Amino acid sequence: MRSSIKGLICALAALVAGAQFAQAQSAISKIVVPFAPGGGQDVLARVIAPELGTLLGETFIIDNRAGAGGALGASVVARSKPDGTTLLMAASSHTISAALDRKTPFDPVKDFTAVAHIGTGAYILLVNAELPVKSVADLIAYAKANPRRLNYASAGVGSATHLAMAYFASSAGIDIVHVPFKSTAEAANSLIGGDTKLLIVPTLGSQAFVANPALRLLAVVSKNRIPTFPDTPTVSESGLPGFEFTSWFGLLGPANLPADVTLKINSAVAKVVAMPHVAANIAQQGIEPQTQSPAQFNELLTNNYAAMKTIMNTVGLGGE
Fold first, then answer.
1. CB distance 151 to 177 below 8 Å
2. For residue 32, what are the CA distances in angstroms to 75, 80, 115, 179, 291?
3. Does pLDDT of 26 surpass 60?
4. Residue 196 or residue 316, greater confidence
5. N or C: which end of the chain has fewer CB within 10 A?
6. Quick check: 176 and 169 in contact, CB under 8 A?
7. pLDDT at 22 over 80
8. 147-164: per-residue pLDDT in tens?
9. Beta bridge partners of 112
10. Could you tell me the CA-to-CA distances from 241 to 13, 171, 186, 205, 234 in Å, in that order?
């Protein structure tokens, strides 16, 4: 009798454990991408989601919530339950939008938990190939000799592509005209067609632009040269010493995400980014894989927001 009861208890325990395991395996979490499918953050989310899901025993779905320059998707995460099942694939646009507009319905730092930094992305400076410049020094000289004769495209007022070029123009002391579009693709098409002459874009997804014979890659807008374009000089070394503009990429959760949940996801992301095939894929997108602790990432987020507000005020776009 005792053996049969013991067997029954073991069978029930195994059944419960199996049910719990199946429930864990079927758990669904989501990574909110605050832009349309196909963009840089969307690509990055889809690179890490499968491996992250495997490590955490969950299924991660990608939820594209485009609108309001990324504020719509970010708001969804800010209002979500702080349990780790809803994360935001964020980038520097997260702090840029808030620095630009005081009416943004969230604080980009206080209303979020810095969960996991993934990497740093550079930008590149492209010009229409018919423009008679071969270096940043040439470009600055040409712009000074022809004030307001040059124009530049962007993905919209307040976008990173707008802010980067406005900051470049302010730092170089040149007067060029801004022509905003609705997306980076539209801005690039205007550059290819010659309607605009200059454009700064993220390296993430830029290979097609660089390969187009109608465009010329002039410089990398980062502190150091990057593996994606190793023979291309930086803006700093080719005409404007000290200038750089980079982007961070990482996962944010809603405020008050428990420390144990944050650390669990952070540890899993670090393992995913360290996987050779994932690291290679991220690097191919023009992002330098780089993980940090939650505390380090929160410090980066805080400092970046302050820096973006400073740059916004420098170029006359400040929201405060």
1. yes
2. 10, 11, 14, 30, 20
3. no
4. 196
5. N
6. yes
7. no
8. 999 999 998 888 889 999
9. 254
10. 67, 10, 30, 26, 9
134's tokens? 């071969």
C-alpha 51: how far from its chain's center?
19
pTM reported for the whole predicted model:
0.80
CA quadruple 165, 249, 304, 35: dihedral sign: positive
- Spatial separation of the C-alpha atoms in residues 88 and 41, rounded to whole Å: 10
Determine the structural domain holding residue 160 and report its residue range: 123-238
pLDDT tens across 291-312, in order? Answer: 999 999 999 999 999 999 988 8
Residue 209 within any structural domain of the chain: yes
Q: Where are the alpha helices (DSSP H) in the chain?
A: 2-25, 40-56, 71-78, 93-100, 136-145, 160-172, 184-193, 207-211, 259-274, 276-284, 294-314
CATH number at residue 109: 3.40.190.150
- Over range 283-289, report the average pLDDT: 84
Q: What tokens does 138 get?
A: 């040439």
Q: Would you state the pLDDT for residue 184?
A: 86
pLDDT at position 20 is 47
DSSP category for residue 234: B
First-residue to last-residue Cα distance in the chain: 78
Residue 185 tokens read as 């693709």
DSSP 158-172: TSHHHHHHHHHHHHH
pLDDT value at residue 4: 55
State whether 201 and 265 are in the same domain: no
Q: What is the mean pLDDT of the chain?
A: 89
Averaged pLDDT, 49-70: 93
Q: Does residue 297 contact residue 120 with C-beta atoms inside 8 Å?
A: no
How many whole angstroms separate alpha carbon 307 and alpha carbon 314? 10
Q: How confident is the model at residue 18 (pLDDT cuts 50, 70, 90)?
A: very low
Rounded to 5 degrees, φ, ψ at 203 are: -65, -30
Q: Compute the distance between CA of residue 79 and CA of residue 61 in angstroms, rounded to an integer.
A: 18
200 and 257 together in one domain = no
* In a shared domain, residues 92 and 153: no
